[in-house]
Automatic annotation (TrEMBL):
This is Serine/threonine protein phosphatase PrpC. It comes from Rhizobium herbae. InterPro entries: PPM-type-like_dom_sf (IPR036457). It comes from the Bacteria.
């Protein structure tokens, strides 16, 4: 399994800092990608998002046991307890994608970060459902969900005041292009603009807008697992096991 990764992130106008953070790690079990979107409410949620990413990547890089969703969720609970004292009002959305060397993929998420896949015809096909009040009772297509104000109210998240059990999805790892994004990408950009961003073209933003970020993973079939970092990585809000962190 060969994975090529690229990270795009643009600061919005709603906060002084970019609160979208991402990271990648590798170990004998495969490759893990994580994207965390710190809430715009509260002063330190950008730092909170970065701390979640760093702790997850450091832990994953040093992990020697077999990894499954239960192990991931236990670690998330431990990180939640560890960060409560430093960030008593912390709030964030997150999504973790673990691509195993054996060909299985596990997705663990809570909040409005999103996993999509490039489908035939350059369509972005939904792989997860954002946890918002706008779609808590019924399925809502992503293009419609983006227009509903209640999408800003989350039914699940990673917040300090209480630990919420994340949603888990397991599937076969198939060659494709996967997009792990924050809501500034999937909800504020048109389908045309989303494709432009992942093709490396610049998209201008007008008026008030959220941080906009996407981690692109291109998975292809090869004999041995291999992770290739795209040009321009890492950035200030990207954390990995080769430069920013010690693994």
């Amino acid at each position: 399994m060969r994975i090529e990764a690229n990270w795009y992130s643009r600061k919005g106008t709603k906060t002084a800092d970019n609160r979208d953070h991402a990271g990648l790690g590798t170990n004998t079990s495969g490759v893990m990608g994580i994207v965390v979107d710190g809430s715009t409410a509260g002063a330190n949620n950008g730092e909170y998002a970065g701390a979640i990413v760093r702790e997850m990547v450091v832990w994953f890089c040093g992990l020697e046991e077999a990894l499954d969703p239960d192990v991931l969720t236990r670690q998330l609970r431990g990180i939640h307890a560890d960060l409560q004292g430093r960030f008593p009002r912390g709030a964030a959305s997150f999504i973790i994608v673990h691509v195993a060397a054996g060909g299985r993929t596990a997705v663990v998420h809570a909040g409005d970060c999103f996993l999509g896949e490039i489908a035939p015809g350059d369509r972005i096909r939904r792989q997860t459902r954002p946890h918002t009040l706008a779609n808590v009772l019924a399925e809502v297509p992503i293009d419609e969900l983006s227009k509903i104000s209640a999408r800003h109210l989350l039914s699940k998240s990673f917040r300090s005041r209480e630990h919420m059990t994340p949603e888990i999805l397991e599937t076969d790892s198939l060659p494709s292009v996967y997009l792990i994004s924050t809501d500034g990408f999937w909800a504020e950009l048109s389908a045309h603009e989303q494709l432009a961003v992942i093709d490396g073209r610049k998209v201008e933003a007008n008026g008030e807008h959220d941080d906009c970020s996407v981690l692109k993973l291109v998975i292809t079939e090869v004999a041995d697992p291999e992770l290739i970092m795209g040009e321009g990585m890492p950035s200030a809000n990207f954390h990995n096991g080769w430069t920013t962190l010690t693994c």
